[in-house]
Design goal:
globular; Aminopeptidase; 36% strand; 8 strands; eight-stranded mixed beta sheet
Length: 186
């Protein structure tokens, strides 16, 4: 579906186990808060594949990235907020080119303090709803094979492991293998 209206995801509010959660499409004005959330998530887990120092972590580049997501009919970036603070990020990024535009890659990151509240489930439901309405046919993701919490979440939604990558992530002197997972969108 071309130029899909993303407004239904702009302001979804949930109450989950004593927190008030808001999930919405990222706005350009969120750039600095998104960078701060990424930095916090990176400090709290070794499983984040995003590297520090990438160009997208300048406010200007992050603004451009958010704008690109907002303009793409088959891509979306969501933020999760608690008390007006971004505590989680998620995206579906459409593959470039005509031959793979039916595929998007999924990514989710969450501040550790909010693990276990079901926020990942809510975010993933929103992303899959968007995918179903956008014309996407396949969603792929890569997850560190030791990240059992994330793997269990993806499996609950029907993602299947389709491959393994060795030494995919290096943190300090430690290597992590990853799983490639995919879901065919109904």
């Amino acid at each position: 579906m071309k130029n899909q209206d993303k407004s239904h995801l702009l302001d979804c509010e949930y109450e989950t186990e004593s927190i008030d959660l808001r999930v919405r499409v990222a706005e350009v004005t969120d750039a600095r808060a998104v960078i701060a959330a990424i930095e916090q998530i990176r400090e709290e887990t070794e499983f984040l594949t995003l590297d520090e120092g990438r160009d997208t972590y300048t406010p200007q580049k992050q603004c451009e990235l958010i704008q690109a997501y907002r303009q793409s009919p088959n891509s979306i970036m969501l933020v999760a907020e608690v008390d007006d603070q971004i505590i989680g990020l998620a995206n579906l990024a459409e593959f470039p080119g005509n031959r793979q535009k039916h595929i998007a890659e999924l990514g989710i990151g969450m501040v550790e303090e909010y693990w276990g509240y079901g926020i990942g489930t809510i975010i993933l439901q929103s992303l899959l709803e968007f995918a179903q309405n956008s014309g996407l046919e396949m969603i792929t993701l890569e997850v560190v094979d030791q990240n059992q919490r994330a793997i269990a979440l993806y499996e609950r939604f029907g993602f299947k492991t389709v491959g393994h990558l060795n030494k995919r992530l290096k943190v300090g002197d430690s290597y992590f293998n990853s799983l490639m997972m995919e879901l065919e969108v109904d």
